[in-house]
Amino acid sequence: MSENKQLSRREFLNIAGISASSVVLASIGGAALAQGTSEGGEPIVLGVGSIADAGLATTATPCQVPCQFMYRSLVEYNYKDGSHEIVPALAHSWEVLDDGLRYRFHLRDDVILHDGSALTAAVMANWINMQTDENHPNFSCGHQREKHRLGAHDRVEVVDDLTIDFYITRVNPAQMDWFTQNAYAPFSLPALEADACDIILQPVSTGPYKYKEWDRGVRVVLEKHDGYYDPEVGQTPNLIVRAIPEPEAQIAALEAGEVHWIEGISAEDAERLRSMSGIQVRDRKTLYVYFLHLDNRIEPLNDVRVRQALNYATDNDSIVYGILGGAAEPSYSPLSPQFGPFYAGDQAPRYDYNPDKARELLAEAGLSGGFETTIHTTTTPRAGQERSVEICEFIQSNWADVGITANIEASDWQSFESQRVTGAFPIASRGWTPWTGDPDGTILQNFHPEWHPPNGRGVCFLDDDEATNLMNHARGLTDLDERAAAWIEVQKRIVALAPWVFIHHGVIFEAHTDRLKGYNPWPGGIAAGMDYAYLE
User: Fold this and answer.
1) Residues 6+ apart with CB under 8 A from 88
2) Maximum separation of any 2 CA atoms in the chain, in Å
3) 3-class SS at 163?
4) Looking at 3-88, which runs of residues are DSSP E strands?
C-alpha cells in the first residue's frame, strides 16, 4: 500500500467542490505496538457515571460507550490525536465523483469481522440496504435503522468485491463526517441472516474489540479482536465498561485502582484529584449543548417575544457556576465554541440574564400577568445533561420572578425521550451530544423542517422561511470559509428566533491513573479514542 496520508477538513472541502473531482487517500499503515505494551497484560476498566450513557440498561443494547469499540465505519475521526481530522478506516481510499453526488470507497482487503467472515462490498451494501430499503427482508428490525444519519442517501451499488458506490441526493459537504457514523459500520452477513433483529444485543461487527459478556445494568466486557487490521489499536486483552452512577463511588474506585478512567466528575472533585499522586485530570471542552426546546407552534410559545423573554429570564451564569461548579460554558448558540470557525456565539444576539427585559417582552406580548406551563425533564443523568432536575428547578424559580408559573414533570430517560421525540412536550430539557464536527449534525436535525417529527427530532418545530433558506444555502457550500460564514448567518437567525432556551455547553472533567497511556480526549463522544490506550 502507498505512503500514509491524511486529509484535512479544509483540503477535503476544497477538493469536494471540484467538478467530477477525484480524492484518493492511502490506508493507515500497520504501526508496531506502542512501547510499554505486551501481548498479555491486564484489562483497562472504564468507570462510566451513567448507566444510560454506558448503554448498560437491563433491556436496551450494550451501547453507547461499548459500541464505539466494537464498530468501525468507512472512515473515522483522528481519535488517536483527539481531532476531527477525517482519516481512513474500513476504506483505504475513496473518490468523490459526479460533482459530489457519488462517493466510491475502496475497502481494505484485510478486514475480518468478529465471526471470522471477511468484509466485502456486498456485506456493506446489505447493511446499508437493511437500514434504508423497505423491501429488504430485515428492514423491520427498527433498532438497526439510523435514517436521520442517512438523510442524503439514495442507493448503493457494488462495483466489485472491494469497491462500493454511494449515491446521495444532494451535494453535502458534511457527507464525509456522516461516513464516520455507526450507520456505515457493517454487521456480519452470516450473523444477520441468523438473527437480524437481536444481533444488536451481541454485535458482530468490525471494531478492534468484540462482545464477550454483558451483565445488564452493571458492566460490558469486550475482548480484543485478534483479527483487527491495525495492530496499534486494541492493545489491551479486555476492555471493561462499568456503570458507576454515584460520583463518590467513581472516585473511590479510581483511587482503589478498580478502574483506570472516570468521567463526569464535578469541578470540585477534579480540583481535589489534581493534588493526588498517580492520577491525572483533564478538562474536556465538548461539542455538547444543553437547552430547553420550545414548541414554536403552541400558544404562547408561538410568539417570538415570549420565547426571547424565557431566555432573558434564565440566569445561565448561576447555572454554570453555581449548580455545575464551572463544568460548563454559558450557551449563546446551538454550537459550542469547539466548532471553531463555525461558532457564532460572539456574533449572534445574546440573552444575558435580564428579568426586566423579560417582563417588558411579556407585556408586549399581552402577558404582563405571566402564564402557566410545564417543563419536562429526566431524572436519568446523561453526558451533556447532568443535574437536569436541579437546573429545571432553578429555571422554575427564575421564571417565577417574571410571573411565569412553571410546573416540573420528571421521568426516567426511556419514558421521557420516547415522548419528547414525538413532539409531545411543549417545553423540555435536552442535552445534545453531537459526534460530527460539522454544524449540520446539530443545526439541521434540530431546526430544519425536514427533521420535524415523525421524520426526525426537530421538536421545536421551527418553521421560518428565512432560517430554512439560510440552512439550505449553508449546507450546499463546499468552500470552508464560505461555509463558516453561511453557518454563522444561520445561527444568528436561529438565535434571534429563540426556538430554544440556550443554557450551556458541557465541560467534562475526566480523571485517569498515570498508568493509562495512549489516550487523547476527543470533544465528541465519551472515551472516544480509548481503543488506542494501554496500561504501562
Assistant:
1) 25, 26, 27, 28, 75
2) 72
3) strand
4) 44-48, 75-77, 86-88
Residue 299 near residue 436 (C-beta atoms within 8 A): no
Residue with cell 451533556: 384
Q: In the chain, what are the domains? A: 1-30+74-194 (3.90.76.10), 289-506 (3.10.105.10)
Residues 6+ apart with CB under 8 A from 207: 68, 69, 70, 71, 72, 185, 225, 228, 531
| Structure confidence by residue, pLDDT tens digits, 223-282 | 999 999 998 898 889 999 888 878 889 999 999 999 999 987 888 889 899 999 999 998
Whose cell is 456574533? That residue is: 347
Q: Which residue has the cell 471494531?
A: 207
The Cα–Cα gap between 335 and 331 comes to: 8
- Are residues 90 and 187 in contact, defined by beta-carbon separation less than 8 angstroms? no
pTM across the whole model: 0.75
181-238 pLDDT tens trace: 888 999 998 988 887 777 777 789 999 999 888 887 788 899 999 999 998 898 889 9
Distance CA 142, CA 358 (A): 44
Length of the chain (residues): 536
The 3-state secondary structure of 132-161, one letter per residue: HCCCCCCCCCHHHCCHHHHCCEEEEEEEEC
**Strands (DSSP E) found in 276-361:** 279-285, 289-294, 328-330
List the grid coordinates of 425: 412536550
Q: Is 200 helix (H, G, I), strand (E, B) or coil?
A: helix
β-partners of residue 163 are 106, 160
CA–CA separation, 209 vs 239, rounded Å? 8
